[in-house]
Amino acid sequence: MKLTVNQIKRGSVNEPYFFDDHADVSELETMNNDIRKISPVHVTGQVTSHGEEFYVNMHIKGEMILPCARTLVDVPYPFDIDANEVFSASAYYGKEEEEQEIHPIQGEVLDLLPFIKENVLLEIPYRVFADHTDQVDSEEAAPSSGKDWEFISETKEDKNVDPRLKKLESFLNNNQEEK
């Protein structure tokens, strides 16, 4: 979600510049977090400019799918975030602005997407629980196989012997018969 500095200045002569858009944050699914799926988020807000500084007030709304802490079933988790960010287009951006968490604007474009993603990541709860854990089918719960692995229970365990160990098995059987 990108806004140009000229677009903001033209649209906010005596009032804030308002925006209303959807942002694709599906990249968060591939990161190392619990998000299994996330739909595009709805972002509304306003930008107020004071000289070379831009104050952005955003409202981010969407839904992500997280695993249940007990059963690993998919749990929809709606979120509603209010975020405030400050940006600077000043050529004199320095350490003081960085310490005050004022973000620099690179060129003429104000890219809000990294800050939207950051706020969504901060909204991920420590754990979520499915509403009906007693009614969860075991097939819906934890996966029983994945890439290069498979869960084997004691009842499902194969009794096949590795062919390399076949002679050892016959040797052990002979020793038990002699006793």
UniProtKB/TrEMBL annotation:
It comes from the Bacteria. It holds the Pfam family YceD. InterPro entries: YceD. This is YceD family protein. It comes from Oceanobacillus locisalsi. The lineage of its organism: Bacteria, Bacillati, Bacillota, Bacilli, Bacillales.
